[in-house]
Design brief:
By secondary structure, the chain is mostly helical. It is built from 6 helices and no strands. It is elongated and about 55 Å long.
Length: 171
C-alpha cells in the first residue's frame, strides 16, 4: 500500500506519462518489496532459536506498528510544495527503500511463523509491481483521491492479521 500511494503521487508529478515511466517505477518498487522480506526472513531465521517463545508477540507488535504507521501516514497532510522527479535514479532508489522497509519486518514475521518465504515474496513483488504500475496511471489521471483511503485500509488489514496470529497462539 505504501508503494501504491507513492506511485499515485509519482504519477501526479509526471507531466507527460509514458509506459516506460510507469514500468520503471513499478520494477523498482516491486523488486524492493520482494527483496526486503527475503533479507528479513534471513535475519529472523538466524534469531529464531532465541525468540521462539515470544515469536507470536513479536509478529503481532511488528504488524501492528506497521499498520499503525500506515494509518498515521494516511491521515497526515501531505504538502506538494517541493516537486521532486520520481524518475530520477537517486529519488526512485530512496522511495523504493523507504516504501519497502516495512517489508523487512514482514520477512522477519515470515521466519517466526514458519512460512515458506518464496511464494509470498514472489506474490508481494508481483502485486507491488502491478499496483505501482496502475498507481502511476491513477495518480497521473485522478490525483490523490484514493491514496489515503487505500493506505489506511492496508494498515487496518495488517493490524487484523497481527491480532489473528496472536489469538491463534494464545488458544
Amino acid at each position: 500500500m505504501d508503494a501504491f500511494a507513492v506511485s499515485v503521487t509519482s504519477g501526479l508529478a509526471i507531466k507527460k506519462l509514458r509506459i516506460n515511466n510507469a514500468l520503471k517505477i513499478a520494477v523498482f518498487f516491486g523488486s524492493f518489496q520482494a527483496f526486503m522480506p527475503l533479507i528479513g526472513w534471513l535475519a529472523g531465521n538466524s534469531l529464531k532459536d532465541y525468540i521462539s517463545g515470544i515469536d507470536h508477540w513479536i509478529v503481532f507488535v511488528l504488524l501492528s506498528l506497521i499498520g499503525c504507521k500506515m494509518i498515521y501516514e494516511s491521515m497526515k497532510v501531505k504538502s506538494n510544495e517541493k516537486k521532486i522527479n520520481p524518475l530520477n535514479f537517486p529519488v526512485l532508489l530512496a522511495l523504493s527503500i523507504a516504501t519497502s522497509i516495512d517489508a523487512l519486518a514482514v520477512g522477519v514475521s515470515f521466519s517466526l511463523i514458519n512460512v515458506f518465504f518464496v511464494t509470498p515474496i514472489i506474490i508481494i513483488g508481483m502485486v507491488t509491481f502491478l499496483l505501482s504500475f496502475v498507481g502511476v496511471y491513477i495518480g497521473n489521471k485522478a490525483g490523490h483521491f484514493f491514496e489515503n483511503k487505500i493506505e489506511m485500509a492496508g494498515g487496518f488489514i495488517l493490524i487484523g492479521i497481527g491480532i489473528k496470529i496472536l489469538i491463534e497462539h494464545m488458544i
